[in-house]
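User: Can you fold this complex?
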Amino acid sequence: MAVKDAGRAARPGQRAGGKRAVAQEPERQADSAELIQLLTPEGERVEHPDYPLDISADEIKALYRDLVIVRRIDFEAIALQRQGELGIWASLLGQEAAQVGAGRALGPRDMAFPTYREHGVAWCRGLDPMKLLELFRGVSHGGWDPTAHNFHLYTIVIGSQALHATGYAMGIQRDGALGEDGEAVIAFFGDGATSQGDVNEAFIWASVTNAPVVFFCQNNQWAISEPLERQSRTPLYLRAKGFGFPGVRVDGNDVLASLAVTRKAMQAAREGQGPTLIEAFTYRMGAHTTTDDPTRYRLSAELEAWKLKDPIERVKQYLIRSEQAEMSFFDEVEAEAAAVGTRVRASCQQMPDPTPDSMFDNVLTTETRQLAAERAEFAAYLDSFVAEEAAR
Amino acid sequence: MTTLTLSKALNEGLRKALEADPKALIMGEDVGKLGGVFRVTDGLQKDFGEARVIDTPLAESGIIGTAIGLALRGYRPICEIQFDGFVFPAFDQIVTQLAKMRYRSLGTVRLPVTIRIPFGGGIGAVEHHSESPEALFAHTPGLRVVSCGGPADAYAMIQQAAACDDPVVFFEPKRRYWDRADVDIEGGLAAALPMESAHVLVPGTDVTMLCYGPMVRTCAETAVAAAADGRSIEVIDLRSLAPLDTETIFASVRKTGRCVVVHEAVVTGGIGAEIAAQVTQECFYNLEAPVLRVGAYTTPYPPSRLEDHYLPDLDRILDAVDRMFSY
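Assistant: Here's the predicted assembly.
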């Protein structure tokens, strides 16, 4: 169903903390935007002529399981940060459907390039959540093998990975790996990143090379404290047209629509039809990161309006109403999520620090003489404390 | 042996790199039909095709960012930044991504990306076409930074850079593109010095003179002039700026007791400053004089009518040599 986006309608005219510089923008964006939706916030299944989705009850239940588990991982991680076990955490709360929908639309040979909030995509790709916690605990900068799950390292500089994804897609072209069973790439980024030069350069590159890459923009409405109208005067998905490829806005809180739209765009890319920009219209329910305080820049009424569009609740309602799931199913998922949460919590608390010497590792493929000397000097310095201690 | 210009030597080296590895690619602005603004890639697109010699959109961050993606896919991109002053739009991708991704991945990824940058002044160019930003890259862990001084090194080192599994920033002395010398393009690279080794170009006993890129020829000429004054200068072409071949540097300074570093770049915070610090630390008791630097003043690159005053030349270098004997 194509519906006029109502996402902004509930937004108060006056923003927390004062005047709005560009008073007309949110309404104008909403008025001109179509939103692809297959499951309404009330849990009603609707059809869209361009995105038919043939999906079984088991498949929907599997998506539900993903949504609940990734929310649980996120919940545990926030708590672990509050307890001093993590340095920081970037919460995905509210964006589960966009990420699980996109993540489950990928084939095993497709390559994903995330930003730093794609915990739901990481889950779908099979990456151990502990690898994410390592990063936010300060144990590593990521440190997973991108080829193990075809899930690249998190990228913290906003938008840089859009170019890496595009270059990787150019490699797929050169490998002759296009076709019905071919490979494609997906680049994740947020609404703030669309202002970055690198994202715009990636759009140009992908367009002129017709690279098999899908740009998946989670528009969660806020780039830390800056609302979307600080980034764009046009709906983001419409930007694609100016670069010469299709753009589409999907209800990012609708896992079925996110899945269908991403699946179609990825298949088009695989078959040599070039890039697509997907704007997943969603909302960052939590803070930007655990160091942020959203009460300083946005009103709680906005949050309350988005709570009614919760990505998990609508799937549950649909499964119940359509009698595709027993209540015991939800209990089982809840228990499984709790078990994952327990494991995440225990593993995080037991995670050892890396050895000091390891900071010298992997600077280059071979260690330079200078670095070897610095490593030795540091080791001798550390040893001097041991010797001093022994002499006491 | 074949007599080649430095530009043609690079061209032949790039051709060899493309032949040696089907995953090697050339990418940059105007590198295809035009053959690059200095003709370094002349004829390569014709022979290797548009998929391997890629005329890119005019966006340097995009060149390096997509090269990283290609490298992650198993390719070996050799990127051209058209002029030194145009590298800065790509600086973020080079410093925050290219240099750190192997470290970030705990060694699971390799990034064999070469970035060729024509650098330095002396060609009467407009602003942003004569700069020497090498210290900014040498300061960044995770990059190898090299520079060739003449055609033979250009031919060998560009192949070594292309074959290297680490990112290499490759500085080409643009005012020496037309210098000619004999290059062995028949034999392999087995006899070539490793890329990270310095080369004692002119042996000497009184002063160690360290240089690279465009200053190599200037320093060799200075050594000849100094010899007429009875001073024996040992000229060392550093070739690699990161890492530095400190073994060769220290051995020479311990012998001569005097060290001068010559580069076109601004002296403040430059390669010369780094070398002066290290030589002072490691050769302190051998030094007869402080380590001196001859380089650009701490100003932006001036209009080209002033560049002869700005750039180090034979007389300014000889003046520094004289000063070293006054201690």
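Residues 359-391 of chain A form one domain. Residues 1-32 of chain A have pLDDT under 50 and may be disordered.
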